[in-house]
Amino acid sequence: MSSTPLFDAIARRSAQSGAAPSSPIATPARNAAPTTIAPSASTAPAVRLDAPAGLSVPSADLAAVHGPATSVPSSPLAVVPADLVEMIDGIPASLRASLAREHVVCQEQLPLVEAVVDAVTRAVVDAVAIEVERIVASGVVRG
User: Structural domain of residue 113, as residue ranges?
Assistant: First the structure.
């Protein structure tokens, strides 16, 4: 194993996907694919994301192509609720506000803080490893 968590995560994922197993491999929850949730009628208007470069997508009406508004679109089209986009866009401001505050941590709480920091670090490293693999596989870097 290497000296950095990023390369360790890439090596683990490459080792898992290297051989085609005859039975499925159990993966930890942090590596599992996200589940798809069907949009409800009460959700905010959606924002259409364009397909990656090199993919052709017909410019027909989204409702005509995919049926009623409650159907889940298929790739390469992705529909993201506008309120979710707004929440994601607000993360940097929220983070800056949180970093401005200081919190006193007792000696007994240090193991918990270390566990949380370790979990967040692993999640970020795994996300970066997945994105690097996606870029290598597709040759497309998202903007």
Answer: 104-143
